[in-house]
Amino acid sequence: MEEQPAATPASGSRVSIEQCQDMIRRSFRTPVVKFLKEHLEKAGCWVDENFIKAVHCEEKLSGGYVRGQGIIVCSNHMNIQDDVNQVVIHELIHAYDECRAKNLDWANCAHHACSEIRAGHLSGDCHYKRELLRGYLKIRGHEQECVRRRVMKSLSGNPYCSETAAKEAMEAVWDICYNDTKPFDRAP
């Protein structure tokens, strides 16, 4: 029997915590989430459905990775399954970075920038179709520009990184982190 697609809220509406938690469970069936989960476990870090929680967020963010606690997905900022999948993939890349690095220090602007560069580049956050939906119409060079913009946005929330320190850190680690595609063979 073929599984029916999940009902999604009407455009512009947000999902409840319960609906979001169901969407998180469905994200575990997607190829990229399965791949990342498998590689986290190979690296010695276990991920189960309790690792990722749907919550209501007061801040204007989609989700986040919290060291020692797991991933949160902000249900009140999600519209469709693809939104949830993107957040889960992005945050699993942060979890993978912390698992593999062991000494990753989120207060260190360069460490944080590197993980954000990787998550932005490898998750598909900056795919040109997503950028067009956000209102960014540049075709050539959009992906790196998008990753840079999103890294700076994320680092602006880090109390240890001034805007200048964030920009310097991002530029200092850009080449090495942008080209580090682990656990993928190449950027998906």
Topology, please?
Blueprint (H helix, E strand, L loop, with lengths): L16 H11 L3 H12 L9 E4 L7 E4 L3 E5 L6 H21 L7 H14 L5 H7 L7 H14 L7 H16 L10
Parallel strand pairs: 1-3
Antiparallel strand pairs: 2-3
Brief characterization of the structure:
This protein has 7 helices and 3 strands; from the N terminus they run H-H-E-E-E-H-H-H-H-H. The protein is mostly helical and 188 residues long. Strand 2 (63-66) and strand 3 (70-74) form a beta hairpin.
Strand segment tally: 3
Structural class: mainly alpha
Fraction of residues in helices? 40-55%
Total domain modules: 2
Mean pLDDT: 88
Radius of gyration: 16 Å
User: Could you give the order of the helices and strands?
Assistant: HHEEEHHHHH
Instruction: Tell me the β content.
Output: 5-15%
Span of the ends, CA to CA? 30 Å
Question: What characteristic shape results from the CA principal axes?
Answer: globular
Task: Enumerate the spans where pLDDT stays under 50 for 5 or more consecutive residues.
Answer: 1-11
Strand order of the largest sheet: 1-3-2
The number of distinct helices, counting runs of at least 4 residues, comes to 7
Sheet with the most strands, sense and barrel status:
3 strands, mixed
